[in-house]
Design brief:
By secondary structure, the chain is α+β, with helices and mostly antiparallel strands. Helices cover about 25% and strands about 20% of the residues. It has a six-stranded antiparallel beta sheet with strand order 16-19-20-13-15-21.
Length: about 700
């Protein structure tokens, strides 16, 4: 494979020393547009560097060098041709290789690609193309895709009036202007209350961006000129959306967090308790974009700390510095804005964490009351789970069964991510129970990893909260048993930046469709495409598929990376493949197939689940180590071996003694030295374990 031209080419044999190139290739199979080959390496010469066919001038120079070598007494053949053969062999002798490679070759751009999977994908009918589909409802998980409002705004405010210096209760609350004389045009309009400005005795109040021409400015208003606005109704939102065609959404938020280069801690830890940046020490900026919903407080927070010189109606930019600030930093005009924003943001995070800690502890205690026996009695042997990505059509949906003993950590990393197609232990995530009652939904406790180094974890306080219940200590069975209903509804968010929200329905399962050899999880079926990680959320994913199917123009760049044109392209173009490799195959959850990784394949997904449930459960707090990308040039792909073995787990209580799965385990109640994924496997293993179990019990007496 020529790295410069990105094409395969033959090698010349090393004649006359070696009459043939010592290698082989055989075809194994062809399926789904991919041909599998076995290739064995040996000897060969690159034609571009073959110096056996020398010009007369080069031969004359070589003859002179040969004569000089003889005159100096060097150990060289006296015969010129023998000398040349020896020189050429030393230059072209390849590295010996006894390795055998499995090579997968898929279609390439050009005429031969017209009948492959890429052509079929390019010609997808309009009804099969993904499109963003949001629901206008206070409890809708995609409400933020429609309008600049939160669930809080549909609830009756918990404060009755506006009084001076009451920022703790009024921050983020919607207020109505009343009795203004200088800005009578605003009387009756609604804004969002911000900080209390003690020097002027006024509140900072923000107007909706779509009412303010996209400007980030605010006005200062006396308390007596502000009333608490009534709760928003769905009818009012419908009228608002019909009022004008301009975008009513809160724009994406770009946060730039600068922290010490020595830090490998969770971003929120750096914000709350930063490591001092030493004089002359390095500072590393980390960037990420938030496209999710906002609490009412987060609305006001972001408007407060936004950088007006960078942000606009298309993007709000915030710059933060994880540092302990001095009085000099606060006074310095060059750092004053970033200093104030960083302090305000860190205070906000501390406040959210303090408020949520008590609620989270209470929820964890309530879950711990449901013992294994209680869960078994309520749930039975299997729970059926139906998961659907919110806000997109045609549906992206999967259906599977799991053991009730599986923790939510294992459910996310080793079942949900493989079946949907996400990369596990890569982004931040959380679960919460969903209720029809809006007040109960607002107070529903989120469950997720206690700590996370994923970049998107810094967005958690904007909607999820200051802390979450420990998903490692709560099982899906406990969550189901805690509700007096045959059907439990749960929201699951993957990637706090791009904010992929999923609706999960959990119900009992009789197990009739589950194979007898299924262990702790089994994928029943599914539909819909896979989504590349870091695609930028649903709207940008819709554009991505539109470009790959000829609906939207694609940016055409020259060899220097500069955009030279925008045009519709198809799989006969190298630009199409370059875009596909960069925006799809290069993503960490898309690197397992040379075919179309966007297509859902039931057999592959089942294999992924079987491998995942036998993998050691990954620890949270190491997500930043999984951020990587690979080089996918046209024509070349390299897949590293990803072998999973139960032997990786050294602790016998961390895997099933019979099948080797590492999730939904329960220890032997008598000796606590071995674990099983099911009652059946414990019974099957009892003959082997019996003597050991009794010996351990005897030793403890």
């Amino acid at each position: 494979f020529d790295m410069k031209t990105n094409v395969w080419k033959p090698l010349k044999p090393t004649s006359p020393i070696l009459p043939k190139a010592q290698s082989f290739m055989c075809r194994l199979k062809s399926e789904n547009g991919i041909t599998h080959f076995l290739i064995g390496g040996g000897y060969g010469v690159d034609p571009d560097h073959d110096t056996r066919d020398l010009s007369e001038r080069t031969r004359a120079e070589a003859h002179r060098i040969h004569q000089d070598a003889i005159a100096l007494g060097h150990d060289v053949p006296a015969d010129f041709e023998s000398y040349m053969n020896a020189q050429q062999l030393s230059k072209h002798k390849p590295q010996y290789s006894n390795k055998v490679y499995e090579v997968l070759v898929t279609e390439s751009f050009g005429e031969r690609g017209e009948a492959g999977w890429s052509s079929n994908f390019f010609k997808l009918s309009a009804d099969k193309l993904p499109g963003v589909e949001s629901v206008l409802h206070p409890a809708s998980p995609t409400l933020h895709n429609i309008v600049d409002l939160s669930l809080d705004d549909f609830l009756q405010p918990r404060v009755d009036s506006v009084v001076a210096d009451d920022q703790n209760n009024l921050f983020g609350v919607r207020v109505k202007f009343d009795g203004l004389k200088g800005r009578q045009d605003l009387n009756g309009e609604v804004g969002r209350c911000g900080r209390w400005l003690s020097k002027t005795g006024r509140y900072e109040v923000f107007l909706p961006l779509y009412e303010n021409g996209g400007k980030l400015g605010s006005i200062s208003v006396k308390p007596e000129n502000l009333l608490i606005a009534d709760a928003v109704t769905t009818l009012e939102v419908e009228e608002l959306l019909a009022y004008t065609s301009s975008d009513k959404r809160f724009p994406p938020v770009l946060i730039n967090l600068a922290r010490t280069s020595e830090s490998d801690r969770p971003p929120l830890d750096d914000i709350i308790d930063p490591i001092p940046i030493a004089r002359g020490g390095g500072v590393v900026p980390i960037f990420d974009t938030y496209r999710g919903p906002l609490s009412k407080e987060a609305h006001a927070l972001l408007r407060t700390i936004a950088n007006p010189e960078i942000g606009n109606d298309k993007m709000i930019a915030c710059s933060l510095l994880a540092q302990k600030f001095s009085d000099e930093d606060r006074r310095n005009p060059n750092t004053k804005k970033m200093t104030e924003s960083s302090i305000f943001f860190s205070d906000f995070v501390r406040d959210r964490k303090a408020k949520d800690t008590v609620r989270v502890a209470s929820f964890e205690a309530s879950m711990a009351k449901f013992s294994d026996s209680m869960v078994d009695e309520v749930c039975g042997k299997w729970l059926k789970v139906v998961v659907k990505l919110d806000g997109i059509h045609p549906p992206i949906r999967r259906e599977f069964v799991v053991r009730p003993a599986m923790t939510l950590r294992a459910l996310h990393d080793q079942v949900l991510c493989p079946v949907i197609g996400w990369k596990s232990n890569y982004h931040c995530y959380a679960f919460r129970k969903v209720f029809e009652d809006l007040e109960k939904l607002k107070d529903s406790c989120w469950i997720g990893p206690r700590t996370s180094t994923a970049l998107d974890s810094m967005f958690m306080p904007l909607y999820v909260g200051g802390c979450v219940a420990n998903d490692k200590q709560i099982s899906i069975g406990q969550l189901y048993a805690s509700e007096e209903s045959d059907n439990l509804k749960v929201q699951w968010v993957h990637d706090f930046g791009d904010w992929y929200s999923h609706s999960i329905d959990i119900s009992k399962c009789d197990g009739k469709k589950v194979p007898s050899n299924a262990n702790v999880a089994y994928l029943l079926g599914g539909e819909g495409l896979n989504i590349p990680e870091d695609a930028g959320g649903l709207f940008l994913y819709e554009q991505l598929i539109g470009k790959l199917t000829g609906r939207f123009p694609m940016e055409i760049s020259d060899e220097n990376g500069s955009v030279v044109s925008r045009d519709l392209t198809d799989p006969s173009s190298e630009h199409w493949w370059g875009y596909f490799n960069t925006e799809v195959r290069n993503k960490p959850n898309m690197q397992r197939s040379l075919g179309n990784p966007l297509e859902f394949n039931l057999d592959l997904a089942r294999n992924d689940v079987e491998a995942a449930i036998r993998r050691p459960t990954q620890k949270s707090g190491r997500e930043s180590q999984n951020v990587h990308s690979m080089d996918f040039r046209t024509g070349l792909i390299h897949e590293k071996d990803k072998k999973v073995s139960a032997s990786q787990v050294k602790d016998a209580t961390k895997l099933c003694a019979v099948c080797g799965v590492t999730v939904a385990l329960r220890k032997c109640s008598s000796c606590k030295s071995v674990a099983y994924c099911s009652r059946e496997h414990q019974v099957e293993h009892w003959k082997e374990h019996k003597s050991i179990c009794k010996a351990i019990q005897k030793s403890k007496k």
